[in-house]
Amino acid sequence: MYSNISIIRIFFNKPPLSADENPGFSDVFVFFVTAHIQTLTKIHLLSMQNAEKENLGWIDLLRVLACFLVVVSHSSDPFIGQFGADNSSFLTGMFTGSLVRCCVPLFVMMTGVLLLPVRTGIRPFYRKRIGRIVLPLAFWSVALPLLYYFYLSFGVPTSNPMVDMESHTLGATIPKMWTWILNFNFDTIPLWYLYMLIGLYLAMPIVSAWLEKAEKRDVRLVLCLWGVSLFLPYIKMAAPALGYTGNYGSMEILGACDWNPAGTFYYFSGFLGYTVLAYYLVRYPLQWSWRKTLWICLPMFLAGYAITSGGYLLTNHYFPGDYAKLEVIWNMAGINVFMMTFPVFVIVQKMKIPSSAGLSRLAGLTFGVYLCHFFFVQVAYDLFDFPQIPAIVRLLGMAVVAFGISLALVWLMDRTKLTRRFVK
Which residues pair with 260 in a beta bridge? Predict the structure, then answer.
């Protein structure tokens, strides 16, 4: 305090305090007034930053785009499931699903944009953010299996190859009412994101404390380490060809094994890197011209798409219908999906979309659409179950219908206080 008062005295052309001199009343008064003004200024700047984050048009656009791409992704699944039976439908689903693989990483990056740095204490943050997720997770984990059961038992017969009717009997449905506490199931596949999101929320206040103090080069170094982790799924996949025989039957690498899932890059891998990347790109925007942006981003996206779709085809050739290996290519924390995500984020960010009330309201409904759309994708598949229609038309028609029905349902639920908490 004494050193600060001396600085203030110098500012007002007064001599600094000597070692044995006590500050007078005027000195203390000016000190506290100055400190109060500084505090108010910081609060004002923080509130302006948060308001800008919440009202930026490009963020709303990206949320709507990512949500629709998620619906397209799940609409492609029944076509991909026709391995061997209908090669044309399989290829249509595979190429379309590969194209939109960046959907969830974009959602995660929006979380980083809107919530980093965390401006509240860790307990209030957990209460607000995790509390908002638990109730929708519980509601839709029960509602979706019930909807599937009644629809598949008493509705239109389905030819969806992804549906196993034995898992939708009453006996199979009842345990789903409580086993969602442990994990998602087929009926609630999209809800895997909520389990992951809770994990992100748990880590974000801790990461935020570091981000606020870290220099630009330090954040960049951590992002580079995360970038190394994006290659690990492919290194693991290629390891047997290099002569690696595993460890007591486990084919994990870099210290990971059956009794230790935490390998070298365990703490630098996964979706948390996308939130840090989004924070970095917003705090330090790329100063690229449109020409440079397109010259870098378009080839990067196309290369990522070529690796994703070509890799899926190649993997299916050697391991036909083996989802465990096929999902390696579609791993959203893999380098090829990152190569598709980064360009979309950067281009939309650079577009500087103006804020609008309509776009903001639509973006506000996307969380609810994400939660409920999977069931309506199934309904839309049965509505468009006409083999004579080209597969791409059926797929896109399914996505539009499922998105539209989900949006209407969420809009209705948002209008009443009782149901709003399940979609927002």
Answer: 257
pLDDT of 24 reads 56
Three-state SS string over the chain comes to CHHHHHHHHHHCCCCCCCCCCCCCHHHHHHHHHHHHHHHHHHHHHHHHHHHHHHHCHHHHHHHHHHHHHHHHHHHHHHHHCCCCCCHHHHHHHHHHHHHCCCHHHHHHHHHHHHHCCCCCCHHHHHHHHHHHHHHHHHHHHHHHHHHHHHHHHHCCCCCCCCCCHHHHCHHHHCCHHHHCCCCCCHHHHHHHHHHHHHHHHHHHHHHHHHHHHCCHHHHHHHHHHHHHHCCHHHHHHHHHHHCCCCECCECCCCCCECCECCCCCHHHCCCHHHHHHHHHHHHCCCCCCHHHHHHHHHHHHHHHHHHHHHHHHHHHHHCCCCHHHHHHHCCCCCHHHHHHHHHHHHHHHHCCCCCCHHHHHHHHCHHHHHHHHHHHHHHHHHHCCCCCCCHHHHHHHHHHHHHHHHHHHHHHHHCCHHHHCCCC
Task: Classify residue 27 as exposed, middle or buried by CB count within 10 Å of its CB (0-12, 13-18, 19+).
Answer: buried
Distance of CA 231 to the CA centre of its chain: 19
Q: Position 340: which residue type?
A: M
Give residue-wise pLDDT tens across range 201-236: 999 999 999 999 999 999 999 999 999 999 999 999
Sign of CA dihedral 206, 208, 213, 214: positive
Residue with tokens 């389905």: 158
Per-residue pLDDT of 18-45, as tens digits, reads 555 555 545 544 444 444 444 444 434 4
Report whether 342 contacts 298 (CB < 8 A): no
Quick check: 340 and 299 in contact, CB under 8 A?
A: no
Which residues, 6 or more positions from 423, have their beta carbon under 8 angstroms from its beta carbon? Answer: 136, 365, 367, 368, 371, 372, 410, 413, 414
